[in-house]
Structures are given as C-alpha cells and as structure tokens.
Design goal:
Layout (H helix, E strand, L loop, with lengths): L1 H15 L9 E14 L5 E13 L4 E14 L2 E15 L6 E14 L10 E15 L4 E14 L2 E16 L3
Length: 176
C-alpha cells in the first residue's frame, strides 16, 4: 500500500511536465460555421456559412484575433445573409503537446441583409462574441480548430442571443 501512495503523485508529475508546444507568431484559420439565431419572442432560425481568422500571439498565453464570419439561410420564407467583423483578445493554454484550449472575447459589428430579423434595409449593428474552443494539432504547422461562441447582437433595440459553432483548419506561421 505504501508503494501505491507514490504512484499517484508520480503520474501527476508526469502529466504536468508534458512538453509544452512552441508558440506560433501567427495563426491563420478558416472553415465551416453554423449560426443559430434566437430572438426573444421569435422562433429560432439557422444559417450555414464560413469563418476565417487571423491571430497574432504576443506571448505563449495572450494574443489578438480578427475574425470574419458569413452565413446564409431562410427566415420566414425570405433568403437572408449575415456577416460579423470582430476583434479582441484570445487567451491560450499551451501546456499540452497536441491540444491548445483557448478562450476569446471579441467586439465588432454584424451586418444583416434586407429581411434579416424583418429589417427593411441591410444594416450594421453592434456585436459581442465570447466563447472558446481548442486546436488539435496533427502536424507541426497545422491543426483542426473546434470552437463554440455566444454572439450578442442588437437589432430594433432588442438583444438577440445567438450561438455560433465552427470547425476548420489552422495554419501556424513563425515562432515567438
């Protein structure tokens, strides 16, 4: 029994001392994005599209990101589109060799086409995006990114609570 007591700390030490990965200077990503819009008092609507981002890492845990996403779908029989343009900080945990979890908080704008949420003209409004995900490395310079975000928008002086799910490829450029 005394020997088994030392096994748990030894395993924890080995897990905690896993080789940390190198920090890339830039991360370029792009992929598929699913948008679930939910307006208070209205039914949920769904849109499909794509997303892309550029991240610059300042150090191994902090960076800045510019994200662009675009979707298309149908709302009440009308074809609609929406795009977001957002920028903000990203916090990464680079302790593991193949997995990099991260959290982000971004501010920017959402552009809704005519008919989006019943608008008569296309228009830009404020957008706030917060969430996180993980990069799953499968090469020294490539990874698959899975991400989920809460997207707050405001049309007609009413908050819309939306969800965005994305998956795509990431390419790492340079090292810090």
């Amino acid at each position: 029994m005394k020997r088994l007591i030392w096994v748990v700390p030894a395993i924890l030490l080995l897990c905690c001392s896993a080789k940390a990965q190198e920090t890339p200077w830039l991360e370029l990503s792009g992929g598929y994005s699913y948008f679930q819009g939910n307006v208070a008092g209205s039914p949920t609507f769904h849109m499909n599209g794509g997303t892309g981002s550029i991240r610059e890492n300042m150090n191994n845990w902090f960076g800045g990101s510019f994200d662009f996403s675009a979707w298309g779908g149908t709302l009440n029989g009308t074809n609609i589109t929406a795009q977001t343009y957002e920028f903000g900080p990203v916090f990464s945990y680079r302790r593991f060799d193949r997995i990099t979890p991260f959290a982000n908080l971004e501010f920017g704008a959402v552009h809704g086409s005519e008919g989006y949420l019943g608008t008569t003209n296309s228009q830009f409004q404020f957008a706030l995006n917060g969430g996180g995900g993980a990069d799953f490395r499968f090469g020294s310079r490539t990874a698959v990114r899975a991400q989920a975000d809460y997207v707050l928008t405001r049309f007609f002086d009413v908050h819309q609570n939306n969800l965005q799910y994305s998956v795509g490829l990431v390419f790492y450029i340079g090292n810090k």
